[in-house]
Amino acid sequence: MVSTIKNILSQKYFSKEDIVALLKTEGDSLQLLLDKALDIKRCYVGNYVFYRGLIEYSNVCGKNCFYCGLRAGNEKVARYTVSDEEVMEAVRFAYGKDFASIVIQSGENTNAINVHHITDLIKRIRQESNHTLEITLSLGEYEEEAYQEWFDAGAKRYLLRIESSNDNLYRKIHPDDSSHRFGDRFSALKTLQKIGYQTGTGVMIGLPFQTIEDLADDLIFMRDFNIDMCGMGPYIEHPDTPLWQFRDLLLSQRERFVLSLKMIAILRILMKDINIAATTAMQTLNPNGREKAIRAGANVVMPNLTPQKYRENYLIYENKPGTDKDAGETLFEFEKNIKDAGEIPGYGLSGTSKHFQSRN
Ligand code: SAH
Ligand code: SF4
User: Fold this and answer.
1) Which residue range(s) make up the domain with 166?
2) 236: Cβ below 6 Å to ligand 1?
3) Ligand 2 centroid to 69 CA: how many Å?
4) SS (H, E, C) 50-100
5) In the chain, how many domains are there?
6) What is the CB-side half-sphere exposure of residue 35 using CA atoms within 13 A?
7) Domain of 43: which CATH number?
8) Is 105 close to ligand 1, i.e. is its CB under 6 Å away?
9) Could you state, in chain order, the average pLDDT of each consecutive group of 10 residues for the chain (360 residues)?
């Protein structure tokens, strides 16, 4: 097995069969895969791990994705939207801590008032940071006009996970209606790329009904799409969602975690110069999840800057960590995780995707 994996890793091009073999590796050959990914990361994107301050802007969502705790149908959620003043406080915190970039994430609320409101917020953040703070949006699917308006206002990065690149699986984890179409999600991602955003996507790993072949296809999808950034992590069940009924079909949380590490490592090998996040979901399933993800090739972390009082209401999955910690406490942990992984905290670095730079 070790020699097979060695052979595959020495290649320049990877077929689907190669990727499936890499996704199945264990033991010594898994270590080879992880080491190779770390080498490539250091060689192509360096030793720095970039910071994005995450603001979970609103949990108001019009959609009903079967996996997500924020789905409109979950009546147990107390809905909130962070006030502009509170957003600016988080922004000042990020700025003060020398983060060069923030992410605004939210449930999907496509009404026009909300669209223009976000535009104003983007302008204000840019102005009050002397046009230095980079803004990533992760707000879901909107019309091209909205994406363009936000881009013109100064947000230059967008994260929209495809969730699964397999249309059939996509249909199993979403309601069968016009607001949850794989084709629309794909078109939205294309539109973002066309407008000129640094475009990020990702998938959930270990979903019910998902196969290893699906995951290999997800990686190939990201390569073919030519993405600039990736945020992906394990699927984690939530009791107040329809997918909860399939929890007995799932791999163990440990297995989902290891599979996610492999996905990160393989993606790093396939797409050497993109940005890859060590996601919160990784940390949820393993106390050293962030550090391990960095060692597998991730180069971005996203400390949560959402005001404390809202955090317990942004539970997309079970046992999400950090709901009881303040930002200062968490920052110390992030720095430690990065250093323990042998890397350097990238304070003051905006961390533009190298891949984006070179394809432009
Ligand atoms: N509403 C926006 C952004 C917020 S949701 C959107 O859907 O694009 C952000 C991400 O959380 C989703 O893309 C999904 O991949 C992830 N997510 C939702 N439920 C999850 C779960 N149960 N386990 C792991 N990730 C989940
Ligand atoms: Fe809403 Fe996003 Fe959750 Fe889907 S994944 S229910 S769009 S917040």
Assistant:
1) 2-7+14-359
2) yes
3) 8
4) EECEEEEEECCCCCCCCCCCCCCCCCCCCCCECCHHHHHHHHHHHHHCCCC
5) 1
6) 10
7) 3.20.20.70
8) yes
9) 93 97 97 98 98 97 98 97 97 94 97 95 96 97 98 98 98 98 98 98 98 98 98 97 98 98 98 97 96 98 96 92 75 95 96 95
